[in-house]
Structures are given as structure tokens and as C-alpha cells.
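Q: What would this chain look like folded?
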Amino acid sequence: MARVRDLFCATVALLIVLAAGTAAAEDDAFSAAGEIVDMACYVTSGAKGSDHAGCAKVCVKNGQPMGLLGDDGTLYLLYANHKNGEPFETAKEHAGSKVRVSGKLSTRDGIKGIQVDAVKPL
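A: My prediction, written as C-alpha cells:
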């Protein structure tokens, strides 16, 4: 009987570890300050800053992915709230500029993303 109990406990512990390892991390009340970058130019060539702002605005307007390069060097993928995409659209206007983005932080498979619920120029 003790062997069955031990096997059961080991199985439950394994399931808990596996569930914790595959779940996406989320934080509903997250904010970060940094520069909005177009991911295509930043990831391929490190393009950022005021000298690149014009290009960044054109790139995100034409559909390139948009990110936030945090003041701490963390790069976040920005994505729209399915219920209210207006803050995400507003963020596009600030490409190449410093802002504070607020929303839900999610992490999956090594990618950190922020659902844009608010954007404030800095």
C-alpha cells in the first residue's frame, strides 16, 4: 500500500512540475518605459533612436511588428488588446520615441510581450 501511495505522490509532483513549466507567465498590471522600435529594423540592424524615428513610423504603419526596447535593455513585442485596439494604434504614432507602455505582460517560449492598454509619451 505504501508503494501505491509513493507512486501516486510522485505522479502528482511530476504533473505539478510539468504544468508549471509549460504555463505562460502573465502579469495584468505591468508597465515599462523605453523606446518604441520597429522590430524589423531593430532586430536585423539595431536601428533605433531619433535618427531612425521616421523610418520606424513608416515601418509600423506599413505593418512591421512593433516592440518596446525597455530602459533596462529588455525587448518586448507589443500587441493589441482584442477588446480595444486604440492604445496599440496610438503607440504606432510614437515609434522612435520614449514612452511608458502599460498592460498585460505575457511570456511564452522565451518571447516577452505587452498587451498595449495605455501608452504615455515621456
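Residues 24-121 form a domain with the OB fold (Dihydrolipoamide Acetyltransferase, E2P) fold (CATH 2.40.50).
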